[in-house]
Design a protein that fits this description.
This protein is α+β, with helices and mostly antiparallel strands. The chain is built from six helices and 19 strands. The longest helix has 18 residues.
């Protein structure tokens, strides 16, 4: 018997939840209860990220239903991601949330209209919900349009791309280098090196309006507006992208560590254990541990995992070793987004796992 209740983790004022199942109303209620136990309220919500099975919901009806389920006065960023399977329960819908506990004198800025804002600033944290291109005119042009919009929102929040610590890119294209490389280069042009950590996932269907790409950002900034110091981690011999990009495997800032999606690739970007999902899960988690160790902290506590996987034959509840390894993540104490796709960014790459950790500095 599997149990998939909402999990909550906190580091300082940052609260992360993931892992539940049920209706929209049930998951929102569980999220609010979880953040409430950590001393936060609905006004402290900063981001909702909703994974939904693309043949069960539309983005428009989800947005309306979410707005109806949230209490009056809610204002947070929103990302909707159409997927092949959402969560470890019935696979239809998985909602995760980030909240930042408010405090007296905390800097709070909103861009956009409630309940779903374009961007929010809560103390040292920035959250920008996923943005699509102004027009559906091809993935490269859309990528540039998306980054221009995100840049304008960052500026309105008193920040810039130098303050970004994590980028999630969701695109509709085949999982091959030829398909994703032009877009990746267009997006990368907006960052100075070293840039943020980055995770990119191929979607099974186009986004609303026939769009090809959407990007979500998280940032950290001093409450006085200064750029916070950052350090990066790239363990020797760890895999690399087949083209040069400004991103790093790990970024540490303000007592937190961010690890971009880790995969079962070698240093030459060749897939390791292509036919073994369970081994790829183990290697991805081991890579996360290596990246976190590279921060040089005295210890760490995992706050969130995003596990994006190619649907295994027979399904997530098939009892196969790979499916069992994924369900073990979902049943643990850490908030985990467990999300299935038709394919990832490389042929035979079965899983990609990203992480956020709290660092105990030496």
């Amino acid at each position: 018997m599997h149990s998939f209740a909402i999990k909550t983790a906190r580091a300082g004022d940052l609260i992360m939840t993931a892992g539940g199942s049920g209706t929209i109303a049930e998951q929102i209620a569980a999220i609010l209860a979880g953040v409430g136990q950590e001393g936060a309220g609905v006004l402290d919500l900063a981001l909702l990220r909703v994974f939904y099975r693309h043949d069960a919901f539309s983005a428009a009806e989800l947005t309306q239903s979410l707005a109806q389920a949230l209490p009056a006065g809610t204002g947070c960023a929103l990302t909707l991601v159409p997927v092949a399977r959402a969560g470890a329960g019935d696979g239809l819908l998985a909602i995760e949330a980030v909240a930042v506990r408010g405090s007296q004198g905390q800097v709070r800025r909103d861009v956009g209209n409630r309940p779903f804002l374009t961007g929010v600033r809560r103390g040292q944290f920035l959250f920008l919900g996923a943005v699509t291109g102004v027009q559906a005119d091809g993935i490269v042009a859309e990528s540039t349009s998306v980054m221009q919009q995100l840049g304008a929102t960052l500026q309105a929040l008193g920040a810039g791309f130098a303050d970004v610590v994590r980028m999630n890119r969701w695109y509709h294209a085949a999982g091959t280098k030829a398909e994703w490389e032009p877009s990746a280069r267009a997006v990368a042009a907006f960052y100075a090196e070293p840039g943020p950590i980055a995770t990119a996932i191929s979607l099974p269907v186009p986004l609303p309006g026939g769009r090809s790409i959407q990007i979500e950002l998280m940032g950290m900034i001093g409450e006085d507006g200064r750029i916070l110091p950052k350090r990066h981690s790239w363990p020797e011999g760890l895999w690399d992208w087949p083209i040069h990009l400004p991103y790093k495997h790990g970024l540490a800032c303000g007592g937190l560590g961010f690890v971009g999606g880790q995969v079962s690739l070698d240093a030459q970007a060749q897939v390791i254990d292509p036919d073994h999902l369970d081994r790829q899960v183990a290697r991805s988690l081991a890579n996360i541990d290596r990246v976190v160790a590279g921060f040089g902290a005295a210890g760490s506590t995992t706050l969130h995992l995003g596990a994006y996987f190619e649907l295994p034959q027979g399904g997530l509840h098939s009892g196969q070793p790979g499916a069992t390894a994924l369900l073990a993540l979902a049943e643990g104490a850490v908030p985990v987004a467990l999300v299935g796709f038709d394919n990832l960014s490389y042929p035979q790459m079965r899983v990609e796992i990203e992480a956020i950790v709290a660092l105990q500095e030496a």
